[in-house]
Amino acid sequence: MNLRNKLFTAFVVLIIVPLCILGVVTYIVSSHSIEEKYSRQTEYSLKSISYSIGTVLRQMDNVTDNGIATSVFHMALAAKDPSKQDLNEEQLSLNNSQRNFRNLLYNHPAISYAFLYNLHGAVVSVFTKENFKTMPFEDFKKQPLYREVLELNGVPKWIAPHEYPELTGTEPVFTQIRLVKELSYFKNIGILVVQIKNWDIESIFRNLSPTQNMQSTQFLLVNDDGLILYDPNKTLEGKPISSVMKKTVRFGSGYQSFKTDFNDEKSIVSIYHMEDYSWNVVAVTSWASLSKETLVFAQWFIGITLLCLLAAITFNMVFMRRITGSIGVIVRFMRKVEGGDFNVQVEDRGKDELHILAKGFNDLVGQINSLFKQIKTEQKQKTQAELRVLQAQIKPHFLFNTLESINVLAIQNEGVKVSEMVHRLGNILRISIQDKEEIPLDQEIEHLRSYLEIQKFRFDDLFDYELDIPPELSRRSVLKLTLQPLVENCIQHGFEGIAYKGHIHVSCWTDRGRFILQVQDNGIGMSPEQLRKFVYMKNDKEEESGRNGDQDRHINEERRGLGVRSVADRIRIHYGEYYGLFICSSLLTGTIIQCVLPDAEWREKDDP
C-alpha cells in the first residue's frame, strides 16, 4: 500500500469509521426509544378501544336483559305458532308483549335482526330480514356454538362478522346469542339471537388513534384463531392475519407489541386481548411514518460524513499528491527493473529529498545495468565453452568406433569395403568440421546415412534401417551431430546379443510449434534402473565426485549413455530447458527416443 493510501486509510479508520459507528449506535438507540414510546401509547389506546367496544356490547346486553325480565321472550316462546291461534286473552297479551319488545328494539336503530329458537324446534321471528334464511334449529344443535351457549347458562355470547357466516349471514354484523330462561323456576325455554350493525364499532375505530399525527395507523379486530373479523378499510376482513403478517403470533395473552413485515411493509404491530371476549384489537403502524425524525437525523449524518470524506480526498490529492506521486513513479520504475529493464531513468526535479532519492535510484540502476551486461557476457562465453566441450565428446567417440571398424576390414583384406567406408567417413568429417552449430536436416540425414552404411559394412546382417523424412521438412535447422549418437546407441547397445535382425526407424514431424525427431529400434531395451541414468541433473558432477568408491562398478553404464547425454545437454544449452530428449523403453521390446526441438517456422507464422 502506498503512502497516499496509508494516509487516507488512517483518516477513514480513525475518524470516519468511529463517526459511522457513533451514528449507527445513535440510530439504533433512537429507533428502540421510538418503538418503546409508541408501544406504551398504543397500549393505552387499544385498551380504550377495547373498553368502548365492550360498552356498546354491554348496552345491547342490557336491552336483552330487559326483555328477559319482562317475560317477553317467555310469552313469545310459549306459543308454537302465534299467527294461527285465536285472539284470546293470552294471545292478546302475547302480541302486546311482542309489540312492547319491538318498541324497545326500535329505540336502538343499530339492531338489524332478531329471532328466537324454541327448544322444541320452532323459530319465532321478532324482526324480519330480507334475503336471509334462518338456520334450522336441528342444524344449529349440531354446532359447537350451541353447546357453548348452553354452558354459558344465560350469559350473552357475542359473535363477530365472518366467525359463523352459516348462522349469522355474510353481512358485517355483530351477533348476540344467549339462553332464555323462565324466571320463576329457571328452566331453559329458548335461545335468543340478536344482530346489530357495526355503526358504533366503526365510530370507535374512526375516532380513536394512538397519536393524532399518525395517519398511517390501521386498526383490526382479530379473534383468537387469527381470523380478521373487522377492518375499517374493508380489505382484509375474513382473511387470516398470517396471510399478511410474517411473524407467527399467539393470541389471547394480554398486550404484546413487536416489529415485523405487514403487507410487505415493515411495521409495528400491537395486540391487546379484550377481556370477556375471544377477540383482539390490533394496531398496525408503518415504521417509516414513526421513524421520520430518525431518518432526518440519518440523512444529516450521511451528509456530514460525505463532507468529511470529500475533505479527506481533497487533502489527499492536494497536499500529498506531489510526495506520494514522486515516490510512486520511483516504485513503478523499480518494478520495471525487477522485470529486467535496466535502461530506465527517473526524472529528478527540485532540490529536496525526492531529488536525492531519484538521483540515487538512477545511479543504482546504472551500476546494476553494467554488472548485468558483464555477467551476461561471461555467461555467454561459458555456454559456448560448454558447447565446444560437448561436441568434442562426440567426435572422438565416433571416430574411435569408425576407425576400429576400418581396421577390422583392412585386416580382413576387404579393400572395396575399406574404400567405401573411407568415403563415408570423409562425408561425416566434412560435416563435423563445419563451424556452424546448426545445419539443415537433409545434411544431418546425409551424415546419418553415411554413418549407418559404415556400420552395416561392419555389422553385416545385424540390422537394417529406414529413414522416413518428409521432403517439406528437409530444410529445418537442427544441431549437427544430433541423430548419429542416438543411432550409435541403438547399434552398440540395443542390438547387443540379439538373436534376430535389428531394425532402426528414423522419422520426424511437427506438432504445435515443436519439431520432433524420433529414433526407434527393436533391440533389447532398457530396465527402469537404466532409464533413470538418463535423467538430467544439474549436480551430476557433484554426485559423481561423491561416488568414487563405486566408479569401477558404474563405468560401463556411464560410457553407455555418454552420446545420448551429450545430445540432451547440447539441446538444453542451445534451445533452453523446455526442449531435449524423451526416452521410452522396456526390456525386450525396444527403445524410442524423441528429440524435441523448437519449430522456428511455426513461430514466424504466429508473429503478427
Automatic annotation (TrEMBL):
Subcellular localization, as worded in the UniProt entry: Cell membrane
Keywords attached to this entry: Cell membrane, Kinase, Membrane, Phosphoprotein, Transferase, Transmembrane, Transmembrane helix
Chief localisation class: membrane
GO MF term list: kinase activity
Membrane-topology annotation of the record: Multi-pass membrane protein
Domain HAMP: 321-373
Membrane-traversing stretches: 7-29, 297-319
UniProt-listed PANTHER family: SENSOR HISTIDINE KINASE YPDA
This protein's name: Sensor histidine kinase
